[in-house]
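User: My collaborator and I are trying to settle a disagreement about how two of our proteins should look. Neither of us wants to argue from intuition anymore, so we agreed to look at predicted structures for both before our next call. Could you fold the first one, then the second, and keep them clearly separated?

Assistant: That sounds like a sensible way to settle it. I'll keep them separate. The first protein:
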Amino acid sequence: MALSKLPPKNRLLAKLPAQSYEHFLSQLEEVELPIGKILYHPKQRIDYVYFPSKSAVSMVNIFENGTTVEVGLVGSDGVVGVSILSGDDVTQHQAIVQMAGGGWRMKASEFMTTLETNPELANVVRRFSQALFIQVAQTAACNRLHTIVQRLARWLLLCQDRMESDTLNLTHESLSTMLGARRAGVTLAAGTLQNSGLIKYRRGSITILNRKKLEQASCECHGIVKAEYERLLGRPV
């Protein structure tokens, strides 16, 4: 089957040879991923893995007092549910669609079986898993050390990289949840970036106006994570 007829817009799958794509066609199920849809709850078994296309899924930790904070973000760069590679099929975080779009899902059992028989996929998935681990570790450090303005700039860049769009459908409420910060603090940080001409904020939507200056406003964490993704997975086309 021609490469152009196979599932597009997921850069992890796009790295596979045509034969591997063809093998996936019979196992992938196309799904809609509306904003707010919860793919996994904490302590829930992972029955499916998801390959987002024009969507982004947040991995969120929920604390006993109800506080939430994002620890990782997966978009068209990879696969949601990759933690099953460790041999544990129970997730410790919530996976929630942060930006709506489409994608594909595959039964976790079939995914693991395919990894055993498809060395190209296994290699790409392992490298993605390492890149995601680096993102999660860097996010933890960033949340501890850097200002809300820096963290917001980093997160917007992270989203733009995965959505491949300058306009992101986000509310201040969702941003405060993802950054683990008070909504008032996020509003002030977004105002700072907007007043500097870096972004434009309208109700439910943020448009990045100046990527280069937004990178300068961010901490070094975005650059570190981006460089590691490119080292492990190559530059996106």
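The second protein, kept apart from the first:
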Amino acid sequence: MAKAAQQLSVSQPAVSEIIADLEHALGVRLLDRHPQGIEPTIYGDAVLKRSTAVFDELKQSIRDVEFLADPTTGEIRIGCVESLSATIVPQIALRFSQQYPRVVVSVDDLTAPAIDLPGLRERKYDCLLVRLVTPLPDYPLADDLNAELLFDDRLVVAAGINSRWARRRKIELAELVDEPWILAPPGSWHHVCVAEAFRARGLGSPKASMISLSVTLKTQLMAAGPYISVFGSSVMRLNAHRYNITVLPIELPIRPWPVVLMTLNNRTLSPVVERFIACAREVAKSFAVRPQARRR
């Protein structure tokens, strides 16, 4: 109670009085008091859960007023996985900043695959940019979430430009079984797709020389050594030249890899966030996978 009073810049008796008034109005005990401190009861937890939404709506209303008073200012809070912060997010930010240069965009990297959507339900973020492991129509989406497909990505096999494989026009997967691979952790979407590709050709899975999901780590190792790995085609499109890596001529089974924008249902988004999302939709159009030309 003393810590709460200090954080709120009020006296401790004032906090105790407010809690007592709430308990009297609701007719239930909100806090269990112990010599070691206090903890919320099941009723207190229920009030806390709803209060998060209430105070978030109040904050959103303040942001709306600020935007109406000056449409060139505001703040956006997004979370995204690393592979998207290295691809589509910079493109969105550049386009958005040209239109709204005074809006602050706060970006946090999420741990892939981020399927538990950290921070979204707690309203830490206005939206999330994540990759799903299944096509959106088949994804078990919770009732309180909204997922908008931005584009479908696909996996490609890559190596450093100085690799002996980089100069080959045709490569069979069987030739790469014993090469040093950087693979994603077992059970991840990347790992499953690689295993399926080798299995479809009657081959065992390659053994990993390193296990990591880090785009930065993989690209740096591949540029300097003989490593092979897989990336989303969007990652290669924007970073291949920068990191001295290249796509190898290998056909993998086509499996959609949805890149989606996640928001909370029944949550009012501020006008500046809506404009950011509109910008994301425009940028995503250029990332859509185009049909490959038939090879002779």
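Some points you might bring to the call about the second protein. The chain has nine helices and twelve strands. The two ends are 75 Å apart (CA to CA).
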